[in-house]
Amino acid sequence: MQPQPHALDSIQKPGPFHWQNRVLGYDKGMKRLETYLSEYAESHQNPVNIKLHNLCVPAIMWSLLGFAYTFGLTEGLTLAHAITFAALVYYAFFENVRVVLAMTAMTLVMFATFPWIPQLRWVSLFVFVLAWIGQFYGHKVEGKKPSFFQDLLFLLIGPVWVLSKLFPALIGRPPTPGS
What we know:
Shape: globular
Strand content: under 5%
Order of helices and strands: HHHEEHHHH
Distance between the termini: 33 Å
Largest sheet: 2 strands, antiparallel
Helix content: 55-70%
Number of strands: 2
């Protein structure tokens, strides 16, 4: 007989630094990345919704960073750099180097496009609105509310979920059928 999983098995274990407990709520039960991805997948089963998310999630990320890129903080540093740094710190606490590297690479590719887009602020706003319309249409087809309605951190999980569908080894699991 196999032991039953305990409710706390899905909770992220504290890292080597005690300040992690206080900063990110490990002591209050921060979820593991795999748990977030599983919960995210629950409201993303319909093939149309999955395809829309595979397109719209990166478009939203690109447009958000593109819009933020148009706001300089200091010489050579933009709001997009600050947002990216904060997101990468968040991903680092999942203690999965592949996720941090993949998100860094995806962000660098996005950043490389920004200087080539005329009227980046307006293009970003247009893409942002269209991509969100696509997202909400996908959830209408799915018949389920977006995950971020239950937890805003799912806005940071979406890009990892999309990458994990394309590259299952990113999170250390085999490809799933219909990915």
